[in-house]
Amino acid sequence: MATATQTFKYSYRDSTGKIQGGEIEAPNEAAVSARLKTMGLAPISIDPVRQSAFKKEIHIPGMTDKIKLKDIAILSRQLATMIQSGLSIIRALNILSEQTENAALARVVVDVRSDVETGVSLSQALARHPRVFPPLMINMVRAGEVGGFLDNVLVSVAANFESEVKLRGKVKSAMTYPTVVFVIAIVAVIGMLIFIVPVFSGMFLSLGGDLPPLTAALVGVSTFFKYGTVPLIIGGGVGAFLWKRNKHRKGFREKVEPLYLKLPVFGQLIRKIAVSRFSRNFGAMVKAGVPILQALDIVGEASGNIVIERATKDVKESVRTGNSLAGPLTEHPVFPPMVVQMIAVGEDTGALDQMLDKIADFYDQEVESTTEALTSLIEPLMIAVLGAIVGTMVVALYLPIFGVFDLIA
Prior knowledge:
- The chain has helices at residues 29-38, 69-84, 89-99, 103-117, 122-127, 135-147, 150-206, 213-246, 250-260, 266-288, 292-302, 306-320, 326-329, 337-349, 352-398, 401-408, and strands at 6-13, 19-26, 43-48.
- The protein is mainly α.
- It has a three-stranded antiparallel β-sheet with strand order 2-1-3.
- α10 (266-288) packs antiparallel against α11 (292-302).
């Protein structure tokens, strides 16, 4: 549970005898005194700062408290750099708590620093915030503490998260433009159906006569959207709520996530992303010295797909009985033969972590090329489909005009 903190104003005498001061966040005065002593400062006074209600930071649940993977990647890189430079963990955390831009993450870092000051290990302090720090990071830090190479582990954690952020960024940037254009076009079409088509249909019906079948169908669609838009929006909101609530439940995942890999166009992309994530995380944990069985538990859950998670469970059982890693993977089609063979070679040569890194790099490039190909394919298809929809609407609206003169006469 997060520890409540407040701001304290302190003063101290520097080497020249001058009185200096500053502000710092901590749970209590004792924690402030202990932190200043680790910084080589002898405090003269420590007083809590009373803040006006208007100056308090506004927190909006779900918005201002959101911590992204990018924030964790930056934090890991900065922490690794400072520890490699010779700073103590407490001092490094103190600096990070003051310079971290994400206010929610800064508060968590303050809690972690306070725990470390009381003698708790860094990995244990991180583990007290499971919603912020991924299990991958916690277990790699624990391995680095035990092996005495925490700085190298933090560099590996930072590189791993940076690669993940880069991969997500590539996919999002490639899909943003067609998605935005598609949404705008759909909104425009629905707007025409709700506001423009009824005007034409009213004019045609006032003249009498029967509407052409295509026009009658368009009027029917217009009527549906005119009265069904609000229920559709409500239904969409309820569906989104249910999806968000159930998407992490195992029973729901077992039914839905295997279908992702069978999608006509996006299935291969999802598969490559999952394999890349599995390989990168597994390689990072093996390199950090995390036990294989423990690493398999974590990378399976972090893969983001229940199919990969099942495969890692089979691999774990194989390793537990003294067999190879690569053997069970051949029974799971989600892993291409190249991946299985490279893992087998890595096992035989003792360079499993290097092989996994190469697999991750290869599939990162595959994801990038696949997203570019999808973008180049989706854009003309989207234009053609929307052009056909708008063209059909225009034709349906103009068909009755040819019979207007007969009705007037």
